[in-house]
Amino acid sequence: MRSSNPVFSRRGFSRDNGSAGFNAAPQTGGAAVGTAQGPVAGNPYADAPAANPYANNPYAQADVQHGVPQAPPTADRMTMDDVVTRTAGTLGTLIVFAALAWAVLPVDDANLGKSYGYAIGAGLIAMVLGLVQSFKRKASPALILTYAAFEGVFLGVLSSAIDARVDGAAMQAVIGTMATFVAVLVAYRTGLIRVNRRFVGFVMAAAMGFVLLMAVNLLFAAFGGGDGLGFRSGGLGILFGIIGIVLGALFLALDFKQVEDGIRYGAPKQESWLAAFGLTLTLVWIYMEFLRLIAILQGND
Predict the structure, then answer these.
(1) How many Å is the Cα radius of gyration of the chain?
(2) 160 close to 99: Cβ distance less than 8 angstroms
(3) What DSSP character marks residue 108?
(4) Full-model pTM
């Protein structure tokens, strides 16, 4: 099964049976894990072992401890420190450009149209860059950081506009996003959240349904005026805002699992940029849902 996050559907983070991924058997020289008749030990998603995408990497030699491939530490392997550093750099770039946009693109009556124009342009560019990176076979740090910069401009103007109507909305959304991140991380590390095939299938189905409903609502709003079917205002807006935040939290659990698998199965160090990109996408999703929910609750939808 392919990851819910398009970033992790690339080489090394694939869940498809028969394709390269971290649900793989250890490389030549390592002990066999799983058989053609059973799942790979320690991987709840894999139906059968697949070729390790890093088998040709001279540093990618896996050991087996308790039936699970464990990657020995080397300078060329992805580590948790790599993921944390790249994620901090990507989020830091986004935050810096969001702050700059907030400061230099005011949303007062005299500059509202101009600021919104810049925000929409930056948002479209960020979307294109994000899609390009999602479908690339390898991580491009420059592309990821450029995406973060344009996404920051978009979020900066949007946050400023909502904060002007709802005092403190942006900070509340930031706190809510951080609290969600910490809560999911603790739940994942303590085993309260177990990411397996059923979990992934549920999240995928729920996310597809949510996105489809929002797309239909947007089409009705664009051609019929108003708020379309009302999924983003009033009582329904509050309900779907909560659902959006919950989905974002579930995506975070999937991201944590993908990072854990990447480290365990010996992903190259460069793959940490993909992990950072995926985590950034998820955190942006959660932040925007919090921002929208706060605006609705304050009667400014």
Answers:
(1) 21
(2) no
(3) S
(4) 0.76
For residues 277 and 144, is the Cβ–Cβ distance under 8 A? yes
Angle (nearest 5°) at CA 47 between 249 and 279: 25
Count other C-beta atoms under 10 Å from residue 126's C-beta. Answer: 22
70 three-state secondary structure: strand
Q: What are the pLDDT digits (tens) for 276-297?
A: 999 999 999 999 999 999 998 8
* pLDDT tens figures, 102-139: 999 888 767 777 888 999 999 999 999 999 998 887 89
Taking alpha carbons only, the member of 59, 69, 58 closest to residue 24 is 69
Residue type, 13: F
Q: Do 115 and 107 meet the contact criterion of CB atoms below 8 Å apart?
A: yes
Surface-to-core class of residue 168, CB atoms within 10 Å of its CB (0-12 exposed, 13-18 middle, 19+ buried): exposed
Number of H helices, E strands in the chain: 7, 2
CB-CB contact of 116 with 97 (8 Å): no
